[in-house]
Amino acid sequence: MKSTIALARPGTARQCLARRGKARHSKPQSITEEAKMLKMALAKLVHDPSLYPRQTVDAVNIRRMVEALQAGEQLPPILLDKKTLRIVDGVHRWYAYKRYYGDDSVEVPVAMRTYNSEQAIYLDVVGLNSRHGLGLEPQDQVKVVLTARELGIEPAEIARALAMPVERLERVESRIGLSPDGTPLIIKPGMVPKFTGRRLSKRQMAANTALAGNCAGYYLRMTIQLLESDSLDWKDERIVALVEILRETLKKIAVAA
């Protein structure tokens, strides 16, 4: 038994996310789903990083799934593209099975869907990861928008897949900057909004890579709090050296201003 899921294009659409020169993606997307659940060897399943909407896999989530398997629980079937056997939904389950069994020949539950385009596959990937299980982080959403640009997917379609209003895509796009060679990249919150749509220098690129997920104000407030509360270990030579670097950096900035 098969069922068809329509991913029709909305009647109104805003400016296409596609880069200049890229074709707009305007065909309604359809998915044909196999109702019957199958079993397939882990070795046959394909994890395609270009389809994966997250920046990284979540080790904690994988560990919890392994523990569930150890407790005798069953995980939902991994969803595959029937033509290529690429994983559409279930990458964490795939990793959990591999860790639990330690044998790629073991067969696990899978379900199949047939898609009429690469865009339809990606919209399904994003939609499934946005609506259940581990949600997409803001940085993941930026990755999704960048991939959507490459595929020529329109804003209304990707917004619906992300389960957000089209207007909110502007906030997501504010986290997109350019590497020194002009390649689009994800800007960490500490670098936004200064570098939205702008090219970063090599030093700024290094800072963007090193930063965690907090805004610049957070790092500054924490530094001030540590200094004002006398919470630093002044016997630690590394701390003393870093504070000296901070002092010299502030002095240079003051002179330049």
Explain this structure to me?
The protein has 257 residues and is α+β, with helices and mostly antiparallel strands. The protein folds into two domains: 172 residues, no CATH class; 40 residues. 41% of the residues lie in helices and 15% in strands. The chain has nine helices and eight strands. Strands 1, 2, 3, 4, 5 and 6 form a six-stranded mixed β-sheet that branches. Strands 7-8 form a two-stranded antiparallel ribbon. A hairpin with a 5-residue loop joins strand 7 and strand 8. It is globular and about 70 Å long.
Keywords for this structure?
257 residues; alpha+beta; 2 domains; six-stranded mixed sheet; two-stranded antiparallel ribbon; 15% strand; globular
Question: What's a quick, concise take on this entry?
Answer:
Helix content is 41%, strand content 15%.
Question: What's the arrangement of secondary structure elements?
Answer:
Blueprint: E1 2-7, E2 29-34, E3 38-41, H1 59-70, E4 78-81, E5 87-89, H2 91-101, E6 107-115, H3 118-131, H4 138-151, H5 155-161, H6 169-173, E7 176-178, E8 184-186, H7 202-210, H8 216-228, H9 237-256
Helix pairs in contact: 1-2, 3-5
Fraction of residues in β-strands: 5-15%
Gyration radius from CA atoms, angstroms: 23 Å
Instruction: Find the structural class using helix and strand composition.
Output: alpha+beta
Helix fraction?
40-55%
* N-to-C SSE string, H for helix and E for strand: EEEHEEHEHHHHEEHHH
Tell me the domain tally.
2
- Tell me the span between the first and last alpha carbons: 71 Å
Largest beta-sheet details: 6 strands, mixed
Give the overall pLDDT as a whole number: 84
Number of strands: 8
Which consecutive residue ranges, at least 5 long each, have pLDDT under 50?
A: 1-28
Label the overall shape: globular
What is the tally of helical segments? 9
